[in-house]
Amino acid sequence: MGALEFSEPRILQPQDDVSGFCCGTEFIDQWLATHGLTAKEHGTAVVYGTFISPSDGKQELAGFCSLSSYAVARSRAKGWLARNTPASIPVILLGMLGVDARYQGCGLGRDLLLDAAKRSKAIAEQLGAKALVVDPYDESARSFYERYGFRDLGDTGSMFAKL
């Protein structure tokens, strides 16, 4: 097999087929199947997907992430994040990030995270948000986010990176 070529992330559309997606983490797969195509319509998140076109030409979802507005209670934050902020600190939530098991280990998770951070920074410059927040689902995910500069958000279990 040659080098894999993934599309640039784009907003998922209702006609996109996500039925074959499986990242190996059931609640992420289930969230995508249940909410991924309707989250934008419902105003809860915007889901970005990257695709690959196998030899049959049909696009397959290779990975996705979701972004939404969020707030962190100042009482739960420390240091820089809590300084000069209202009681509810505006942040952006990277709510879901998943890479299909067939494409794990290709750097796609990193690429999706960097794209989400870039989009979040652009949003923060127009709207106002102090950080990108994630809720890692296990220690492996926590280690992944730590490699990209995310730090613990107090005792919440969440992590954040400055925008």
Commentary on this structure:
This protein has one domain (10-162): Aminopeptidase (3-Layer(aba) Sandwich), CATH 3.40.630.30. The chain contains five helices and seven strands, in the order E-H-H-E-E-H-E-H-E-H-E-E. The longest helix has 20 residues, at 108-127. The model has no long low-confidence stretch (mean pLDDT 94). It is an alpha+beta fold and 163 residues long. The termini are far apart. A seven-stranded mixed beta sheet has the order 1-2-3-4-5-7-6.
Radius of gyration: 16 Å
Model regions low in confidence, pLDDT < 50 over at least 5 residues: none
How many strands appear in the DSSP assignment?
7
Order of helices and strands: EHHEEHEHEHEE
Quickly count the domains.
Answer: 1
Mean pLDDT, nearest integer?
94
Instruction: Look at the structure and name the CATH superfamily.
Output: Gcn5-related N-acetyltransferase (GNAT)
Could you please say which CATH topology applies here?
Aminopeptidase
Keywords: Acyltransferase, Repressor, Toxin-antitoxin system, Transferase
Protein name: N-acetyltransferase domain-containing protein
Pfam family, one: Acetyltransf_7
GO molecular function: acyltransferase activity, transferring groups other than amino-acyl groups
Keywords:
163 residues, alpha+beta, Aminopeptidase, 5 helices, 7 strands, 29% helix, Acyl_CoA_acyltransferase, acyltransferase activity, transferring groups other than amino-acyl groups, acyltransferase, repressor, GNAT_dom
